[in-house]
Amino acid sequence: MKTSIATVSLSGDLSEKLGAIAQAGFGAVEIFENDFLAFDHGPREVGQMVRDAGLEISLFQPFRDFEGLPEPQRSRAFERAKRKFETMNELGTDLILICSAVSPLAQGGIDRAAEDLAALGDIARGHGVRIGYEALAWGRYVNDHRDAWEIVRRAGHAEVGLILDSFHTLSRGIDPGSIRSIPKDKIFIVQMADAPRLDLDLLSWSRHYRNMPGQGDLPVADFMAAVEATGYDGYYSLEIFNDQFRAGSARQTAVDGRRSLIYMMDRLKAEGCAVKGPSERDPLPAPAATSGVSFVEFATDLTLAEPLSRLLLAIGFRHAGRHRSKDVKLYAQGDLRVVINTEPEGLAHSAYVVHGTNVAALGLRMRNAEAALKRAEGLIATPFRQPVGQGELELPALRAVGGSLLYLVPDDQAIDRQWETDFDLEPGWNRHASAGLTAIDHIAQTVRFEDILSWTLFYRSIFDLQPLPAVEVPDPGGLVLSQVLENPDASLRVVLNGSQSARTLSSRFISQFVGPGVQHVAFRTGDIFATAEALRGSGVAFLPIPQNYYDDLDAKFDLAPETLDAMRRTGILYDRDEAGEYFQIYLGALDGGFFIEIVERRGYKGLGAANAPIRLATQARQKPADMPWFGTS
């Protein structure tokens, strides 16, 4: 697969964009004319910059309002085209995009448009360039790739071909199957974009809300399958108009773009399509199958480790052992594993210096950790390795949100073997009475709003996680966008939260924490009332929930009076869906904004989104000094 991306998709000036595109591993770039016009170097210099970066120019674009014009506008359009051909010669590219006319002066007629393109093809031949014609979804007369193809077919010119764009086809609900009958040599380039389903006019939708394939709701895989069926072997090029991307990191956007194309091609191959590209030579393993969280690792220092360990003991963990060669302690409760890392150097220490006490790493239980690593590397994730002591276990790891780590832990090592290999363990360390916590229900990571799509693609493309419909949660300081991803059996749930408002709890966490990271961990229990009583007996304080909430709960649900009274006493929140019931309780926040949630599921599928505004409003009222987590009740 040959990959390209349009400069309009990225932030920065032209030189910054080219650097990011080359670093991400693309083979070519589309030069968007506005980026070129705003740059302070001429076309020959720009062409040389592209080649010095190891790239080709796949396309120069766009050329607007060409076909079907009356005189004198028609003659002027031909003169404009000649000047663009000269610029292309200096840039060193041979393909220009001509998009279907939107001018009110344009006249309809397939034959008229075909005659204009054929005449321009003669001029293009003299300049050694080609013309690609594209149907804009909002074109005045031509807004369907089938009509654009008929115009190209009637033009009957070797230098005139078709440009296909997934957004322009799919946004109008056009069946991409018709692409299969187009000769591959007449498809000059294929542009790719996805988008969320929005009730907007086509132009606004296209100009502001496109995203990478796999980040939206359009059937881009069906579109690519139709293109592949023609035998097409040219560039797949990303043309993404998105305000968030143009305001974010050019490097991250470029990496996401290339990852998205690799992911989409891999999906096609998994679905049995005969595809061309690197997946044939070096196939990716299947999406990495997960079975939950193996462990949570906190990074802190010796002073702050003491109150953190007291919290773990208070919620039912016990000290289980100490690492043989590092300042790392293990805490266990049933199959749950939490480690506290107080190493004075290394990655965990660096994370502590930057963020304070934080979740520096998560272990994910994998059915095949090595295959998962291979897939991640093929999808441009960054692996991580650090020295281990003689005889100690070396686990593959990936860089993740905020520079944290995701360790890929084989299933057969997650519960006992991993710890028996590296730790001096207490007798009976994994067999003790507890507060009833049984598993990690979900991990909530707070990220910058503009990075939610990026991390959604990361988890979706590498692991067996699928995104649920995103929801907007009201916070007293603004709206928080919450995106949940989960594996097929829901043993692993990751929640990505982000907000455009600087006043929300999510944004304040990023500011206080100095970057994105894990903001809370939700532990599951089989009996939240028994767990709450056990924790109260250990001196654990819960987030106080307003009594108004419980009065409303009494009106909405037929809860037994004694159940409702128990919930009032301990601050337990409640929700219900068609599948069952959900109970949740929150501990107060630690320094830095991290907090713990405890939940009980009785068939319920969601995450208690209806309660999120109550929780957020209550947390927003708490000043740091008023947020005890231990020592009062």
Broad CATH class of the largest domain: Alpha Beta
Adjacency order of strands in the biggest sheet? 14-15-16-13-9-12-11-10-17
Give the N-terminus to C-terminus distance in angstroms: 61 Å
Secondary structure: helix percent: 25-40%
Label the structural class: alpha/beta
Task: Please summarize the sheet with the most strands.
Answer: 9 strands, mixed
The coarse overall form would be elongated
Which value, in Å, is the CA radius of gyration? 28 Å
CATH topology of the largest domain: TIM Barrel
Low-confidence stretches: 277-281, 624-633
Query: What portion of residues belong to β-strands?
Result: 15-25%
Report the total helices.
23
Q: What would CATH call the homologous superfamily of the largest domain? A: Divalent-metal-dependent TIM barrel enzymes
Descriptive keywords:
25% strand; 9-stranded mixed sheet; 633 residues; single chain; 2,3-Dihydroxybiphenyl 1,2-Dioxygenase, domain 1; 23 helices; alpha/beta; TIM Barrel
Topology of helices and strands:
Layout: E1 2-6, H1 14-23, E2 28-32, H2 33-37, H3 43-52, E3 56-63, H4 73-91, E4 95-99, H5 110-127, E5 130-134, H6 145-155, E6 160-165, H7 166-170, E7 187-192, H8 202-209, H9 220-229, E8 235-238, H10 243-247, H11 250-270, H12 278-281, E9 290-299, H13 302-314, E10 318-323, E11 328-333, E12 336-341, H14 347-355, E13 358-366, H15 369-378, E14 383-384, E15 397-399, E16 405-410, H16 411-414, H17 417-422, E17 423-425, E18 437-446, H18 452-462, E19 466-467, E20 471-475, E21 478-486, E22 493-498, H19 505-513, E23 517-525, H20 528-537, H21 547-556, H22 561-570, E24 573-577, E25 580-586, E26 595-602, H23 612-621
Parallel strand pairs: 1-2, 1-8, 2-3, 3-4, 4-5, 5-6, 6-7, 7-8, 9-12, 13-16, 18-22, 23-26
Antiparallel strand pairs: 9-13, 10-11, 10-17, 11-12, 14-15, 15-16, 18-23, 19-21, 20-21, 21-22, 24-25, 25-26
Helix pairs in contact: 1-11, 3-4, 4-5, 5-6, 9-11, 11-18
